[in-house]
Amino acid sequence: MGADVDLEREIQELKRRHNAVILAHYYQESEIQDVADFVGDSLALAQAAAKTQADVIVFCGVHFMAETAKILNPTRRVLLPDLKAGCSLSDRCPPAAFRAFKEKHPEHFVVSYVNSSAAVKAMSDVICTSSNAVKIVNQVPRDRQILFAPDQHLGRYVMKQTGRDMVLWPGSCIVHEIFSEKRLVQLKVQHPDAEVVAHPECEEAVLRHADFIGSTKGLLDYVLKSPKREFIVVTEAGILHQMKRGAPDKLFIPAPPDNDCSCNECPYMRLNTLEKLYQCMRDGTPELTLPAELQAAALTPLRRMLEWSL
Q1: Do 77 and 126 sit in the same domain of this protein?
Q2: What percent of the chain is modeled with pLDDT above 70?
Q3: Where are any strands of DSSP class E within 61-214?
Q4: CA dist 292 to 58, 75, 156, Å?
Q5: Which domain holds residue 54?
Q6: Using CA atoms, how far apart are residues 233 and 256, in angstroms rounded to an integer?
Q7: DSSP 220-268
Q8: Strands 77-79 vs 56-60: parallel, antiparallel or unpaired
Q9: pLDDT tens-digit map of 201-233
Q10: Going by DSSP bridges, is the β-strand pair 109-113/146-149 parallel, antiparallel, or unpaired?
Q11: What is the CATH number of the domain that holds 35?
Q12: Computed over its alpha carbons, how large is the radius of gyration of the chain?
């Protein structure tokens, strides 16, 4: 691609030409967040997808998010800059294995985290996100036992918050499971005035050091409202862009993972780039498609989530 191409301007023109809307997750690179029509977490993006009147939804996130948009908009085109942008949490819960797991607990009410495939969603009673998981589980009838999948760490956090016992699928996110408790404690010593904010997908050993635990949107709202000036942020580093935009006078320190990196980035989220976004809007591909029967089956638990989130 020629160096003289103004990608941002071209993307805006393509958006007008095709009546397209660009939805981007907080974990996308900052350049993509800046050209998006809507930036949010999984719940907010699902709500935005459900309300859109655009002919084309360009989803800058990972595969399961684009699937969710397609399920909620079966007649609209959904484009994803890179179809290889998957999710370790979703991949660690294969539909066939989940079906066998579910059959061992036939009377359980199935609550599935949005970080799952369309096939797993279709086998669920309701979907949740980290923003609404506690609210959703609290609405499950008290006489029903619950099966929660696929993130065990979020599941344990929800159990503590709700007092509900749940059978947990043993899944986890490669981004959030690698945060180092030892390195986090070292950071706290170096920054004694900093508050620690963490995503509930993190391991319990890390969460016990947090001053606040919440979804990506919850973390953003908290640091913007807090009178504190320094924060150690224990989630994917992409959210720091919105934090810095909202509070440029505050210090945001990315918590280091248990490796040689200084911050933690999702390798799948980072597959999407501004150039790939431009190319997919220009060429109308790659387009995400799903079998109609699967879309219909997954739509019911997704709609229930949106209703229970009101």
Answers
A1: no
A2: 97
A3: 77-79, 109-113, 126-128, 146-149, 166-168, 195-198, 212-213
A4: 20, 10, 34
A5: 7-86+269-289
A6: 9
A7: HHHHHH-S-SEEEEES-TTHHHHHHHH-TTSEEEEPPBSSS-SS---TT
A8: parallel
A9: 999 999 999 999 999 999 999 999 999 999 999
A10: parallel
A11: 3.40.50.10800
A12: 19
Q: How far apart are CA 139 and CA 91, in angstroms?
A: 28
Q: Could you tell me the CA-to-CA distances from 136 to 82, 130, 132, 284, 300 in Å, in that order?
A: 31, 10, 6, 36, 15
d(CA 41, CA 215): 8
Q: Which residues of 173-193 are buried (b: 16+ CB within 10 A; e: fewer)?
A: bbbbbbbbbeebeebbeeeee
Q: Is 200 annotated as a binding residue?
A: yes
30 is in an annotated binding site: no
Task: Give pTM, 2 decimals.
Answer: 0.92
- Same domain (yes/no): 125, 147: yes
Spatial CB neighbours of 163, under 8 Å, sequence gap ≥ 6: none
Scan for tokens 């989530």, then name that residue.
305
Residue 140 assigned to a binding site? no
Judge whether 114 is annotated as a binding position: yes
> Could you tell me if 108 and 161 lie in one domain?
yes
291 is known to lie in a ligand binding site: no
Average pLDDT, the chain: 94
Whole-number Å distance between alpha carbons of 36 and 43: 17
The verdict on whether residue 216 carries a ligand-binding annotation is: yes
pLDDT tens, position by position, 148-181:
999 999 999 999 999 999 999 999 998 898 898 9
Cα–Cα distance, 124 to 113 (Å, whole number)? 10
Which pair of structure tokens corresponds to residue 165?
A: 């016992």
Report the DSSP pairing between strands 146-149 and 230-234.
unpaired
Asked whether residue 157 is marked as a ligand-binding residue, the answer is no
108 among annotated binding-site residues: no
CA pair distance 53, 273, nearest whole angstrom = 25
Which amino acid belongs to residue 136?
A: I
Residues 45 and 42: their CA atoms lie apart, in Å, by: 5
117 labelled binding-site residue = no
